[in-house]
Amino acid sequence: MAGCSKWFLVCLVLCLVGLVIVLVINDASIDVMQRTVTSHRKNFGRYSKDAILPRLSSMLRGSKTAAELEDGEKTSINGSFFRSTLEGILDNDFSQAPELSIPQMVIEERKYRHDDQFEKYLKCPTTVRKKMLDNPNIRSKFVSDIPILMWDKHFNASEFRRLTKFRAINGWKDMNYTDIRGMVGQLNSPSNQYMFDDRLQKGQVPSNDCTTCAVIGNGGILNGSGKGAEIDAHDYVFRVNAAITKGFEKDVGKRTSFYCFCMHSLHNTLAKRRKTGFEIPKDDENLRYLFFAKSEWTYTYLDAALSGKPLPASTGKYHRGPPAFPKQLTADNVKVLHPDFERYLKWSWVNSSAQHKDIHRPTTGAIMLLAALHTCDQVSIYGFAGSYADYSEYYYDKTFSKHVNYANHDYNSENKLWQFLDEQGIVNLYHRTPKEGK
Ligand SMILES: *[C@@H]1O[C@H](CO)[C@@H](O)[C@H](O)[C@H]1NC(C)=O
Ligand SMILES: *[C@@H]1O[C@H](CO)[C@@H](O)[C@H](O)[C@H]1NC(C)=O
Ligand SMILES: *[C@@H]1O[C@H](CO)[C@@H](O)[C@H](O)[C@H]1NC(C)=O
Ligand SMILES: *[C@@H]1O[C@H](CO)[C@@H](O)[C@H](O)[C@H]1NC(C)=O
Ligand SMILES: *[C@@H]1O[C@H](CO)[C@@H](O)[C@H](O)[C@H]1NC(C)=O
């Protein structure tokens, strides 16, 4: 009887140890271990790869510390290298974060990393960000040191684990780390770090540099507005989705400095191209493509586009073919918003009764507008917040088309926000009475 329970205990312990091994040493870290050991063979002294792997594994399980190994096994092994390798491997644990319950998610989604890139956006003495920090009604919404753009420094194992808690656009849940590393690692130009890279001097933002921006929504309020020249007079013009300028120059202008989209909105926009005449903007010399990483497709697509590999279609239920850009995409003309910025917009800026739902997120137009508000020094808004009864959905509509609400967006709260920012003197919102100009 006693012997039986002893064996039972031994089994139990072995099972638990096995479980811990499975949990801690997942495929990714074994893969990294193999590669590390192979590429640094000489630092492991007389040990063969086969001998070193179990030792690393046992250290990963915590059964031996690096120090114990160093002192206890006086061999030709290089202890300090061994320890730093181990730390490297621990930081190379690309396992996915565990599933969170909705209440936990609500808490976790509101934790953001702080980033010093905001300092680049505070050089202008009259910048809108200083106004927001001074305004008691807005200060509480505005996190000045939120990461805005994403580039190579933002990818490592701990960031991967942190961000796989959240579904894309808010993070990297269920995504392949190879694809993310491939894309983010190629965002290695100074252009990826600063919205207005054409102003950088020797990689630095000039002091007292102030930028004016026009942010153009596609609302029917622009039809017959005659605002084209005024829009084009800004330093930068932001446009989104079916931003058709050809034939509408008088109302919407002709310049595009930032073309904003997510892969799915771009696909839908291009699908209607025959009807609308839309083409991806290409003519402006300093044109930049601003990607909102709404799905893994952004990562697989950009990874391939930036390294010259064949472009992938979207995966999953909807099979969408890869869009062709009219210009070669390079680290210099591509920018990607950081997932923390997207979560922060959802929680801080676009308040909605649907906020706690997984699918809720600001519209592509709202993301563009808020990205401009966090980077430009002066922001003028056109084509947003027009009355849906008085104006057709889009300025380029040929016949009146009614506004459609989608469940993942909250149009009313967005429109109220633009009105509020205008009233507070933060942005200039283009208003109009329906009969004006006739
Ligand atoms: C151990 O490895 C480290 C890092 O590669 C190296 O700097 C150090 O010189 C090595 N020490 C010995 C005794 O080989
Ligand atoms: C991972 O990247 C983040 C963001 O850039 C950084 O803050 C953190 O220190 C990095 N971690 C390691 C272990 O390098
Ligand atoms: C991740 O993608 C890479 C290449 O794109 C592929 O080789 C690998 O098998 C994928 N891993 C998983 C877990 O799907
Ligand atoms: C969001 O809306 C709720 C009510 O729906 C309100 O209690 C809360 O104060 C609002 N938050 C912000 C940041 O406006
Ligand atoms: C655009 O404005 C013109 C008048 O300026 C009007 O005739 C036309 O119906 C408008 N288009 C739509 C789709 O509402």
UniProtKB/TrEMBL annotation:
Keywords: Disulfide bond, Glycoprotein, Glycosyltransferase, Golgi apparatus, Membrane, Signal-anchor, Transferase, Transmembrane, Transmembrane helix
KW Glycosyltransferase (keyword) present: yes
Primary location group: Golgi
Catalytic activity line of the entry: a 3-O-[N-acetyl-alpha-D-galactosaminyl]-L-threonyl-[protein] + CMP-N-acetyl-beta-neuraminate = a 3-O-[N-acetyl-alpha-neuraminosyl-(2->6)-N-acetyl-alpha-D-galactosaminyl]-L-threonyl-[protein] + CMP + H(+); a beta-D-galactosyl-(1->3)-N-acetyl-alpha-D-galactosaminyl derivative + CMP-N-acetyl-beta-neuraminate = a beta-D-galactosyl-(1->3)-[N-acetyl-alpha-neuraminyl-(2->6)]-N-acetyl-alpha-D-galactosaminyl derivative + CMP + H(+); a 3-O-[N-acetyl-alpha-neuraminyl-(2->3)-beta-D-galactosyl-(1->3)-N-acetyl-alpha-D-galactosaminyl]-L-threonyl-[protein] + CMP-N-acetyl-beta-neuraminate = a 3-O-{alpha-Neu5Ac-(2->3)-beta-D-Gal-(1->3)-[alpha-Neu5Ac-(2->6)]-alpha-D-GalNAc}-L-threonyl-[protein] + CMP + H(+)
Pathway given in the UniProt record: Protein modification; protein glycosylation
One GO CC term on file: Golgi membrane
Membrane-topology annotation of the record: Single-pass type II membrane protein
Listed transmembrane segments: 7-25
Annotated protein name in UniProt: alpha-N-acetylgalactosaminide alpha-2,6-sialyltransferase
